[in-house]
Amino acid sequence: MQRLSVMSGGMPVKQIRAEAIKRCGLLMGASLFAVLVGTGTAHAQAADTAQQAQAAENTGVEEITVTARRRAESLQDTPIAISAVTGAGLQERGIDNVTQIGDFTPNVKFNSSVPVSASNATAAIFIRGIGQNDYQLSADPGVGLYLDGVYISRGVGNVLDVLNVERIEVLRGPQGTLFGRNTIGGAVSVVTKKPGRDLGGALEATTGSFGRIQIKGNVDVPLAEGVYSSFAGFYHKRNGYVKGVIAGAPDLGDTDNLAGRFALRLEPSSDFTIDLAVDGSRTRENSAPNVAIAINENAPAAQYWNAAYSGAPGVCLDTTNPARLTNTSCYNSQWVVGPYRHGGTFTTVSNVFNRFNPKPYQSASNVNIWGASGTAEWKVAPNFSIKSITAYRKVTGFWTRDSDHSPASIIQTNSDWKQHQFSQEVQLLGDLFDKKLNWVIGGYYSDESGNHRDLVEIVDAVFLSGAALKGQSLAFFGQATYEVVPNLNLTAGIRWTQDKKSFSNENQFVVEAGFLTGAPLNPDGSGLKNGDPLMGPLGRTSSIKDKAWTPMTSLSYRFSPELLTYVSYSKGFKGGGFTQRVFPPFAFIPSFRPETSETYEFGFKSDLFDRKLRLNGAVFLNNYKNLQITVNDPTLGFAPIIQNAAEARIQGFELEFQARPVDGLRIEGGLGYLDAKYRNVDIRALNAGVTTATKLQNAPRWTMSAAVSYNIQAGNIGSFQPRIDWSYRTRVYNDAINTPLLIQDGYHLVNAAIAYTDPTEKWGATLGVKNLTKALYLGSGYADSFGGVTEGVYGRPREWYLSARFSF
Q1: pLDDT of 521-563, one tens digit each?
Q2: Which pTM was predicted?
Q3: What was the pLDDT predicted at 783?
Q4: What is the rounded CA–CA span in Å between residue 643 and residue 627?
Q5: Pairing verdict, β 665-681 and 646-659
Q6: Quick check: 685 and 639 in contact, CB under 8 A?
Q7: Could you report the per-residue pLDDT of 729-766, keeping only the tens digit for each?
Q8: Percentages (nearest 5) of helix, strand, coil residues in the chain
Q9: Got the DSSP string for 791-802?
Q10: What is the DSSP string of 223-252?
Q11: What local confidence, expressed as pLDDT, does residue 477 receive?
């Protein structure tokens, strides 16, 4: 890990920072300077020997280099609300994929399984109450996810495994200037380790609850002078934690994932580097672990099943007969058997539903991902560099959903997904006026296409309700930081973005009208029949074009080497899109407009008491307009649709700390507060049940976390490090209309572990427990009034794990 620190002694801060950045690439893993004692001693004597610097590093809080502003700089020099965790920190927490960082990052929430989706490889990221809870191809996420600077455009495939990761950065607030569209809530940047110059590597094997078997490893292989490579692999398999209660009901929530990454670094000269990488993953799992929370047997689809397909209508339709609650042919509350059990058998009464998509209906969450990227950096002159990032990524998937969670066929889906993207970014970076001015300008282009065949069955009626999408995005951006006077820096930047998207209705038609045949459900009042389009005449295409300017500006002042403060303004926008789920049919292809977010922020960063305590904080006010809300509007039909239906005001703060009060003892924690309110809602939101009194989804008022670890030296035996992690979040509303059954009250999560490292620091082992207190909490959910089911995904129960690792 690269490290930077702050030095005093009367030296100008800009000179210190430039010197630190210059050396961090040559002295990876070591701090260069010591932090002076006290918080107000800007002119105290600096430590000037390597021995003193190393001693400070051993006792002080770890320094982390980040690239949140597209250049390497210390976390403490970056005037942005940012959390960063290193690869070592991820290992200590027992984190397997990127979604788990939400447990300890203030005002951040990850939904590891998105409502309505049945894919285990789809997550919804919310930062400061802003995100997107729908995975559909034609809707953009609200938080940008980046892998080595490459934007991952869709939610499907964004559950990245922790594979040879150097660090993860979480940037809160709009990042529209340097990161672009769809970062109105913030951005998550995953940075992998570059190939090392020496032969070396690590291997770790883990076992645990639910028959867990996990193996991951990496090796650096130098091929020649200036040619270095690395290989990393990951395999994880475990049984499901949601058990099927009847024959034919599979166990859900299992893991079966294989991933790998190859990286090659070329250094033709000291001023020119090329990083090439190829990564891929393959999952073959059962459907996401959704369970029934409640069932309404009087809903239209439920009543039709009980009347026409149960085989016992006299019993199933008689709500006064208690026998219906034990007759497994009936569809009613007897199938509410959660939170860790379900009765879905993934069977269908429709032959066409079983054979219409490329794969037959069965429990599955299969995703294949592969990507390739190339990053070239050329230092043209001492104060001018060029950087190019070229990438291609492809995702194919197949997943199914048995929404009734019973042997019945009330609401079921069968999805086939294909999506790929190409992107090219060029950055020009430099400095002027004796490094008083640092600047970056650049351009970005991406091209994306996808085809989602989302087949939906309602009893014996079958619809293809998918999307065929093409999109291009073009952007130009620039940002500069100028040192107005010593320690006072002004940063300003702006980005222009143009998005184009086209939606074809080729995947939008009635396959089999079933029990809805003849019902007056078409826009012209005619009856429904096989082959009818769901969005106007088949063969129609709709296009939208969005343009946006997203500026930012900040003013930062370093009162002392230990204290930096800043104020900032930033704007972001999230692209418009199309609603791919409609029923009854529409006469047109429905679309929605972009949403925007503007944030005013004040923050500070401090290293106190000889860098034994780090305290960073931010206070913010966000104006959030044209919210894209996923709602069920009864005036428009039964399907969940996305509409621009509200404006909101979100304000709050974050506070993070890290402390090393004595040798070996580390304490860290975070606190986040959100006051999120709708300011205006229009008639579309009101029709769906959203009012100004409704709470924003996935925006808990308080998020808290803390961790304590202590390194115990045991002489020739080695060392032991016990660790405990705690997190808490207050009430979470899991859908836009605040369905009571989908409200999760405040809950605590506690993880504990003890790690052993041998004296050579080559061997180690960790024994840990996750969710130690068996907390029961709802991570996401969805209510379907037509089908009569309210469903959701509960967090994993208590689990133990034992891992052993070896490095060389």
Answers
A1: 888 888 899 999 999 899 999 999 999 999 999 999 999 999 9
A2: 0.89
A3: 92
A4: 8
A5: antiparallel
A6: no
A7: 999 999 989 999 999 999 999 999 999 999 999 999 99
A8: 10, 50, 40
A9: EEEEPP--EEEE
A10: EETTEEEEEEEEEEEE--SBEE-STT---B
A11: 97
Residue 669 tokens, joined: 């924690």
Angle at 554 between CA 552 and CA 560, to 5 degrees: 160
Q: Report H helices in 93-143.
A: none
Cα–Cα distance for residue pair 256/237, rounded to 1 Å: 4
d(CA 677, CA 697): 10
Structure tokens at 378: 């050329």
Residues in CB range of 263: below 8 A, 6 or more apart: 164, 192, 194, 195, 229, 230, 232, 275, 276, 277
Inter-residue contact 498 to 444 (CB < 8 Å): no
The rounded radius of gyration (Å) of the Cα atoms in the chain is 27
Task: Read off the tokens for 398.
Answer: 């197949």
Could you tell me which residues come within 8 angstroms of residue 51 by beta carbon, excluding any fewer than 6 positions away?
A: none
Alpha helix locations (H) across 333-385?
351-355
Could you tell me which of 336, 321, 399, 383 has the C-alpha nearest to residue 135?
399
What would the CATH number be for the domain defined by 60-297+332-807? Answer: 2.40.170.20
Give the whole-angstrom CA distance, residue 692 versus residue 682.
Answer: 10
* Domain range annotation of the chain: 1-59, 60-297+332-807
The string of pLDDT tens digits covering residues 578-627 is 988 888 889 899 999 999 999 999 999 999 999 999 999 999 999 999 99
Contact assessment for residue 572 and residue 547, using Cβ atoms and an 8 Å cutoff:
no
Q: CB-hemisphere CA count at 13 Å for 8?
A: 23
- What span, in angstroms and rounded, lies between the C-alpha atoms of 78 and 564? 9
Distances (CA, A) of 188 to 158, 170, 669: 11, 5, 19
Give the amino acid at 266. L
Q: Over 70: is that where the pLDDT of 58 sits? A: no
List, in order, residues 6 or more apart from 446 with CB less than 8 Å away. Answer: 151, 153, 421, 422, 423, 424, 471, 472, 473
According to DSSP H, which parts of 42-153 are helical? 50-59, 87-92
Quick: pLDDT tens for 326-375.
999 999 999 999 899 999 999 999 999 998 988 899 999 999 999 999 99
Alpha carbons 410 and 727: distance in angstroms, whole number: 38
What burial letters (b/e) apply to 22-38, b meaning 16+ CB within 10 Å?
A: ebbeeeeebbbbbbbbe
Sequence length of the chain is 808
